[in-house]
Design a protein that fits this description.
Elements (H helix, E strand, L loop, with lengths): L3 E2 L8 E11 L5 E11 L7 E4 L4 E7 L2 E2 L6 E2 L3 E4 L5 E10 L9 E5 L2 E5 L19 E10 L4 E4 L2 E7 L4 E12 L6 E4 L2 E8 L5 E8 L8 H18 L7 E7 L6 E2 L4 E5 L12 H16 L8 E2 L5 H20 L1 H20 L11 E2 L8 H18 L1 H15 L3 E2 L1 H12 L8 H4 L5 E9 L4 E9 L14 E9 L4 E10 L3 E6 L6 E5 L8 E4 L3 H10 L3 H20 L5 H15 L6 H8 L4 H7 L6 H18 L1 H10 L10 H17 L5 H13 L3 H14 L1 H15 L3 H12 L6 H8 L10 H14 L1 H4 L5 H14 L3 H5 L3 H4 L6 H15 L6 H11 L1
Parallel strand pairs: 2-12, 18-19, 19-21, 22-24, 25-31
Antiparallel strand pairs: 1-23, 2-3, 3-9, 4-8, 5-6, 5-9, 7-8, 10-11, 11-16, 12-15, 13-16, 14-15, 17-18, 20-21, 25-26, 26-29, 27-28, 27-30
Helix pairs in contact: 1-2, 2-3, 3-4, 3-5, 4-5, 5-6, 6-7, 9-10, 10-11, 10-14, 11-14, 12-16, 13-14, 15-16, 16-18, 17-18, 18-19, 19-20, 20-22, 24-27, 27-28
Bound molecules: diaminopropanoic acid and zinc ion.
Length: 859
């Protein structure tokens, strides 16, 4: 297959002024009639080439005249009409089979209802159309269906509905905003609806409706509340007002993505919409709030202004992630939010950037765009916007945003056009900054310092370099904002944060008037997505760990100390004195009255095993890292046993459940204590943990008690897991948690148990949530066991990829990444991983999705 290249972009030579769609819904034979009002805008002899896949073409007419067989051509991916008038109506009628569609793109069925997912290229499996984001059209949609599907929904406003012959009925929808085909949506089914309204800043009333499975309405209230807060926040923070009279969200169980921002009709994976205290954890509440906001924010950054081509995906995704992260920071506290965002960035994006699938935030070629919905496009894309704001300042940043919204409203545009708005409003030359979009790889920054006591001068030496990534052997220096402050050895603040812009390979900065030998607090707030190395001594890090006024760096100092101790032990050189000292300092931090529980919970969680793998210098040995990390956990659990038990008791709440950040922070700290105590499972701790689990009255506490018992293993684990299953067998979202917790079991026999779970009657590989709960969670979050020296973990994953690729290529492709990292591991492990990739690569009938990622992983 031929890759698609950014350099080959050409505008579509026709405008589709209006699009009229008529759906006659039926599970295995749905008819779709499309009437496209077309006007030639390009070359006089350009043929009309429409995308279309898996469609049964029934008829095609131009201005009512049926085309004869020699007037058009159909292949597996296109409908071509070589000669057309300059202005005409093209009408096609096709038949499709939603019931058989397990790829979950286009029109498919989930739980007896019809729904759609068109981003990026699903619309072409619904009808023939120029399925590309730069073709904007005004849609009107008629849906006809059986009465057993009472709700018939599409984008825009409902303009008519009624009954038809027999038991059938219809609905007519008109969307006044021109949109690209990837934002089209349709839902038909039996649903409960929760209704509310929102008055916008200009005083317009918007009806809000959330549609869920019958009986689930009470679980939609948190999403509804989040939506209203997001609408308000976007008005205040970005001056963005909602534009239709109606905003709808529908939850579906079978969904490849998290959620989708279709104009006026968002469709959500039910795991990111439904929540109540009994079935959802605080982490679920937090993600629901963030994703509801994310999809809503797309209405401006994505829908009103969309992407010219899919290479510009970060234009909408990076910016929208930045917007949802800023919203969450305002809702839940900036420091805790930043730590969580950085943790996710490192775990997913830094790993991607260090492996064979590294790509720029704006890539320049792809085989399947589905493969580019990555942490790099989303999370690094957001970091770029964040740096832009840091470099320009909040006010100039907002001016640039305002100009962008004003100038490009209604357009499909590019990253260049976006950056040009900031250049213009700030007067700053951002041409070097653009390299952040074009260059892959995580920059390495080193910072060393010399202090001249006599002259009271501190000299900072900064350097940067970025290792080669596939297709990019040499790298340019990037403009990197490095926020630095100084503390005294006693932990007093000596100098406030200053942002140094490192925009060359190396530079030196002199700070005068530094009266005492300082401790450097660098990259405060994680001011750039880089790996920082400094010449700080452990004693400096302890100063930061106890006293840095930048709480992000306080947390970071603890992580770095822990990381170095774990890596030393994994390399066979344990520093027992250092481990004791760390445990002691951690104890001090945990009794700090001024710190919030949510922050303390983060202090208590050690760097994850995937992070440690990425940070180890030598080819990684996951089992050694796991054991070294465990050794530190055991030491902390013993050294701080009394304190952890005390906090565990103090953080228990007896009152009513509140999803607030404050209440969630107390639960997080209590659960972090439980987790740590499970490293030292003597009778007293075991009794405490069993008590925690059995007394839990909400899902956060229940999972917080269950996982430690799973880690301890034996009878406690079996009893707890089977009680959990018996309670929740009928709740799919909770059962996902039951699968996922078992896949993260660190005990050596876990692979057999995971394989056995694939034969459990509740394991449905056609459901992406269930598949990921078991298979991805095992491969990504249980490295010590996934990397079993026998290679059985790799074989298991490869078998799953091949099975799932037969019906859902998009989801199958997302399972490839854990194998792709083979170069990072000890050579015997790496060879076995490679062997499985090779086995997949030669498999006949591989999807383009999996083929692209496997091929890239092998080269
Ligand atoms: N555009 C969606 C989102 O990220 C993904 N399908 O919100
Ligand atoms: Zn998005």
């Amino acid at each position: 297959p031929q890759p698609i290249r950014l350099a080959d972009y050409r505008p579509f030579p026709f405008a589709i002024e209006t699009t009229r769609l008529v759906f006659d819904l039926s599970p295995s034979a749905t008819r779709v009639r499309a009437e496209l009002a077309i006007r030639r805008t390009g070359d006089g002899d350009a043929p009309l080439v429409l995308n279309g896949e898996r469609l049964k073409l029934l008829s095609v007419t131009i201005d009512g005249q049926a085309l004869s067989a020699n007037q058009y051509a159909v292949d597996a991916e296109h409908l071509t009409v070589p000669e057309t008038p300059d202005q005409f109506v093209l009408t096609t009628e096709v038949e499709i089979d939603p019931l058989a569609n397990k790829a979950l793109t286009g029109l498919y069925m989930s739980g007896g209802r019809f729904c759609t997912q068109c981003e990026a290229e699903g619309f072409r499996t619904i009808t023939y159309f120029p399925d590309r984001p730069d073709v904007l059209s005004r849609y009107s949609v008629r849906i006809e269906a059986d009465g057993g599907l009472p709700h018939l929904l599409s984008n825009g406003n409902l303009v008519d509905q009624g009954s038809l012959d027999g038991a059938r009925h219809f609905a007519e929808w008109v969307d006044p905003f021109p949109k690209p085909s990837y934002l089209f949506a349709l839902v038909a089914g039996d649903l409960d609806v929760v209704t509310d309204s929102f008055v916008t800043m200009s005083g317009r009333e918007v009806a809000l409706k959330i549609f869920v499975d019958p009986g689930q309405a009470s679980r939609a209230t948190y999403a509804l509340d989040s939506l209203k807060r997001a609408m308000k926040w976007d008005e205040e923070a970005f001056g963005r007002e909602y534009d239709l009279d109606l905003f709808m969200i529908v939850a579906v169980r079978d969904f490849n993505f998290g959620a989708m921002e279709n104009k006026g009709l968002n469709i959500f994976n039910s795991s990111l919409l439904l929540a109540d205290p009994e079935t959802a954890t605080d982490a679920d509440f937090e993600r629901i709030e963030a994703v509801v906001a994310h999809e809503y924010f797309h209405n401006w950054t994505g829908n009103r202004i969309t992407c010219r081509d899919w290479f510009q995906l970060c234009l909408k995704e990076g910016f929208t992630v930045f917007r949802d992260q800023s919203f969450s920071a305002d809702m839940r506290g900036a420091v805790v939010q930043r730590i969580k965002d950085v943790r996710a960035l490192r775990a997913r994006q830094f790993a991607e950037d260090a492996g064979p699938l590294a790509h720029p935030v704006r890539p320049s070629s792809y085989l399947k765009i589905d493969n580019f919905y990555t942490a790099t496009i989303y999370e690094k894309g957001s970091e770029i916007i964040r740096m832009l704001k840091t470099i320009l300042g909040a006010e100039a940043f907002r001016k640039g945003c305002d100009l962008y919204f004003e100038r490009h409203d209604g357009e499909a545009t590019t990253v260049e056009a976006f950056i040009a708005c900031f250049t213009e409003t700030s007067g700053q030359d951002l041409s070097d900054f653009f390299a952040w979009y074009e260059q892959a790889g995580t920059p390495a920054v080193t910072l060393t310092s010399d202090y001249d006591a006599q002259a009271s001068v501190l000299t900072l030496n900064l350097r940067q370099s970025t290792a080669p990534t596939p297709g990019q052997p040499t790298k340019r220096p990037l403009p990197i904002p490095v926020a630095i402050g100084l503390l005294s050895q006693g932990g007093e603040s000596l100098r406030d944060t200053e942002v140094v812009l490192l925009d060359k390979d190396a530079m030196t900065v002199r700070w005068e008037g530094v009266a005492q030998p300082p401790v450097l607090s660098a990259l405060r707030g994680f001011s750039a997505p880089v790996n920082l190395t400094t010449d700080a001594r452990p004693s400096d890090r302890y100063v930061l760990f106890s006293a840095d006024p930048d709480l992000f760096n306080r947390w970071e100092a603890g992580q770095t100390l822990a990381r170095d101790l774990i890596l030393a032990r994994a390399a066979g050189a344990p520093d027992e004195v250092g481990e004791e000292r760390y445990a002691e300092a951690l104890g001090q931090a945990l009794v700090d009255e001024a710190a919030e529980p949510a922050f303390k919970a983060l202090l208590l969680s050690l760097p994850s095993e995937p992070d440690l793998t990425l940070l180890s210098e030598e080819p990684a040995d996951p089992l050694a890292l796991h054991e070294a990390r465990d050794a530190l956990r055991i030491r902390i659990a013993i050294h701080l046993g009394d304190l952890l038990r005390r906090l565990h008791g103090e953080m228990q709440s007896s009152g009513e459940f509140s999803p607030s950040a404050e209440a969630a922070g107390r639960r997080a700290l209590r659960n972090a204590c439980a987790d740590m105590l499970s490293a030292d499972p003597h009778d007293e701790n075991l009794t405490r943990l069993v008590g925690h689990y059995e007394a839990s009255r909400n899902m956060t506490d229940m999972i917080g008690g269950l996982y430690p018992l799973v880690c301890i293993g034996g009878e406690a684990r079996e009893k707890a897991l089977s009680a959990f299953y018996d309670t929740w067998a009928a709740e799919p979202l909770v059962l996902d948690k039951w699968f996922s917790i078992q896949s993260r079991d660190p005990n050596p026999d876990v692979l057999d148990r995971v394989v056995a779970l694939t034969r459990h009657p509740a394991f449905e590989p056609t459901n992406p949530n269930r598949l990921r709960a078991l298979v991805s969670a095992f491969a990504s979050f249980n490295p010590a066991r996934f990397h079993d020296p026998s290679g059985a973990g790799y074989r298991f994953l490869a078998d799953q990829i091949l099975t799932v690729d037969k019906f859902n290529p998009m989801t199958a492709a997302r399972l490839v990444e854990p194998l792709g990292a083979w170069r990072r591991y000890k050579s015997d492990l790496g060879a076995l991983m490679r062997q499985e990739l090779e086995r997949i690569a030669v498999h006949p009938d591989l999807s383009k999705n999996v083929l692209e990622l496997v091929t890239k992983s092998l080269t």
